[in-house]
């Protein structure tokens, strides 16, 4: 029986490569931080069990600053097991040196492998010409978040599961075509829809109505017939996205096509998120294969997956998986604050480590402005890609091409 040895690393993906590809009976995690490794082992077992694998994780703590201590630990493992495979993907330099020493001492009992995680391939490192593993399996968004110790929250007020039908995507394209013609007017109208929904407390209903005076108070803008956006409302009605609307001077009433369209029209920036989401789902590589194996939008993440009164949570507007590489995307349909870059950078590092990719899609952002240039400079420093106001002029194919570049 082959025993797999992983050098414990803070980037969780590096600790589970061999287990994902080889479905072993036993994995030994070697590192310095015993408690951290024990907690991680429980998480890794959970991810593997979700794939039907029953893998035992054994913790081996050693001094990571002394080569002789690491060699001694590795030698004890090799002597106690028939065959051992060392995964060289993670861990510090001393672990790599120690693995080389052990390979020289026990060539008939050891094998070495390393994974190119962005490329999704295994690399034979022992010179025998027989790579042990197939390509690295793809991870889902849910698996990736779990792997890094978090949990995706589903349900009301959390992550929404969209129907992902052709009809929905056609409706998203129509909404995008309407909204991008004048983003300021669009944001003002969706704010009105949102206020109407909250005033009428009609979350479960497709028809909402609200008193005009209350709407003016809620939106902090005087709502009158002269500033009512009849043009966009009529475009929505003729497209079948809203069934009807009425403004009689005292009350505004609107009826939506379905609950998914209602969500798109009552949440600021939802249409941009959905356009990025739907585009990512159909983005292709040059060979015709899908660029992203999993895509989610509005991903509400509990940082530790535990029920506490003061849980840390983040919402990622769009998240994609390219094999085992996560891509975190923030979408802004209005003004962008510099803090958005830091928020995106923080959540991506927490749930993707060194392999995370990051992008900001900001439909209002002018990169040629003084603020735009400053924001771009900071984004470059954080390795965050930006798709700015040019998105409103792009064809669907051009948008997909830019979204494909997010994972590169």
Description:
With 408 residues, the protein is α/β, with parallel strands linked by helices. The protein contains 14 helices and 15 strands. It has helices at 17-22, 34-49, 67-80, 93-105, 141-147, 166-179, 183-200, 212-219, 230-238, 259-266, 270-281, 339-352, 370-381, 396-405; strands at residues 2-7, 26-31, 56-61, 83-87, 110-116, 121-124, 151-152, 207-211, 242-247, 251-256, 294-302, 313-322, 325-332, 357-362, 384-387. A six-stranded mixed β-sheet has the order 3-2-1-4-5-6, with helices on both faces. A six-stranded mixed β-sheet has the order 7-11-12-13-14-15, sandwiched between helices. The protein has a three-stranded antiparallel β-sheet with strand order 8-10-9. A hairpin with a 2-residue loop joins strand 12 and strand 13 (325-332). Helix 7 (183-200) packs across helix 8 (212-219). The chain is elongated, with a radius of gyration of 26 Å. The model has no long low-confidence stretch (mean pLDDT 93).
């Amino acid at each position: 029986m082959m025993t797999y040895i992983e050098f414990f690393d803070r980037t969780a993906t590096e600790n589970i490569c061999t287990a994902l590809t080889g479905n072993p009976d036993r994995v030994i995690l070697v590192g310095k931080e015993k408690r951290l490794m024990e907690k991680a082992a429980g998480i890794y077992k959970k991810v593997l069990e979700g794939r039907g694998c029953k893998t035992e994780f054994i913790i081996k703590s050693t001094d990571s600053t002394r080569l002789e201590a690491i060699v001694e630990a590795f030698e004890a493992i090799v002597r106690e097991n028939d065959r051992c495979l060392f995964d060289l993907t993670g861990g510090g330099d001393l672990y790599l040196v120690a693995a080389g020493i052990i390979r020289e001492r026990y060539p008939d009992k050891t094998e070495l492998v390393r994974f190119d995680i962005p490329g999704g391939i295994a690399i034979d490192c022992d010179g025998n010409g027989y790579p042990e593993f197939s390509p690295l399996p793809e991870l889902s968004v849910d698996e990736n978040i779990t792997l890094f110790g978090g949990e995706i929250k589903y349900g009301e007020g959390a992550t929404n599961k969209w129907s992902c039908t052709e009809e929905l995507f056609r409706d998203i394209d129509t909404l995008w075509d309407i909204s991008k013609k004048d983003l300021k007017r669009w944001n003002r109208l969706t704010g009105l829809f949102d206020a109407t929904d909250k005033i009428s407390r009609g979350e479960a209903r497709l028809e909402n109505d609200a008193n005009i005076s209350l709407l003016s108070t809620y939106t902090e803008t005087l709502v009158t017939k002269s500033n009512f956006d009849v043009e966009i409302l009529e475009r929505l009605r003729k497209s079948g996205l809203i069934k009807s609307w009425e403004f009689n001077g005292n009350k505004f009433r609107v009826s939506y096509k379905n609950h998914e369209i209602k969500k798109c029209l009552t949440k600021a920036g939802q249409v941009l998120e959905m356009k990025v989401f739907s585009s990512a789902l159909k983005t292709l590589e040059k060979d015709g294969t899908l660029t992203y194996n999993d895509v989610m939008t509005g991903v509400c993440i509990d940082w530790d997956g535990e029920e506490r009164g003061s849980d840390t949570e983040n919402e990622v507007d769009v998240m994609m998986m390219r094999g085992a590489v996560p891509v975190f995307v923030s979408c802004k349909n209005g003004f962008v604050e510099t803090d958005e870059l830091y928020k995106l950078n923080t959540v991506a590092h927490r749930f993707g480590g060194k392999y995370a990719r990051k992008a900001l899609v900001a439909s209002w952002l002018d990169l040629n402005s003084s603020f735009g240039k400053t924001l771009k400079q900071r984004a470059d420093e954080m390795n965050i890609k930006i798709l700015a106001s040019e998105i409103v002029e792009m064809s669907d194919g051009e948008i997909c091409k830019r979204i494909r570049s997010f994972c590169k």
